[in-house]
Amino acid sequence: MTRPGERELGREPTSEEQEPPVYEHGVNSVPEITEALQVEEIDVDLYKSLTLWKPSRARGVFGGQVIAQAVAASNKTVREGMLLHSLHSYFLLAGDETRPIIYQVSRVRDGGSYVTRSVNAMQKGRSIFTIILSYQRPEPREPAFAIPPPSLDADGQFLMESITGSHATGNHSAKSPTFRAIPGPAQCPLNEERYQDLLRRGHADANLRKILEGWISDRKASPVEIRDALPGMYDKNGIPTPGNQQAFWMRTRRPMDGGLEAQKVALAYASDFYLLSTVLKALNLSRGVKMMASLDHSMWFYQPFEVHDWLLFTTYY
């Protein structure tokens, strides 16, 4: 017999007895990036997210987190010594931050030199994201950079190749590259400082103030620190100036443990910031666009790095 309020051992609770499930969404909005990237194994080649984050004014889960968690799930199925060198992904539906994302890994190929995985991210029985990843056994004389890294000038500023140079045409011999000087991270403002300055000057109406406060909250709580690197990207009112190039200094607020492959997972997370805004800037559509969405996302990895070190993130259109 059972007393009132109890149920028999071994019997599933009825719908009246069950408490609604609680899913930790938004927990990753702290400077600890490892929490945002973790996935839990629930069966062979099947994983689920532990936390999800929906940015202010976003339609769904932050895309960088979905990419990173899919990479983390894939990494768990790859033998030691194989390193991720590229990924290609597509966003299909907005993710719901109130329920876990299920990541189903398919072991497409396990070769001697290359390994291929695909991951299907699902919610409510539907695919919301898909990705294919390629791993390779390290080889000598691998390329170090797709585009030459910035160099320092006599004043200690970084010289970054402009999009108007040779890489803009796809023909590296078309013309001599031009360079733009950008200050180091210590001389660049945090994203949230730009928004805070707009609020202090009192030019924002009630609606814009609410938007800016949401962005400031997102940036302060983010595990990734971002600084505006390229001078003149925004006017005094915070509106993007015309142009087809943006640059930001980025790093995680805390070191990332787990070796090089963990660094790549964290970089995948950070890589989804400020991509679409470059397109709006180039097309002079910074005002009046109500919704944006990216459909595909690809990355190539060339050499070891630390995500807690400052990385220069440049976008072109």
TrEMBL record:
Molecular functions (GO terms): fatty acyl-CoA hydrolase activity
GO terms, biological process: acyl-CoA metabolic process; fatty acid catabolic process
Keywords: Hydrolase
InterPro entries: Acyl-CoA_hotdog (IPR042171), Acyl_CoA_thio (IPR003703), HotDog_dom_sf (IPR029069), TesB_ACOT8-like_N (IPR049449), TesB_C (IPR025652)
Keyword Protease: no
Domain Acyl-CoA thioesterase-like N-terminal HotDog: 56-135
Biased composition (Basic and acidic residues): 1-14
Protein name: Peroxisomal acyl-coenzyme A thioester hydrolase 1
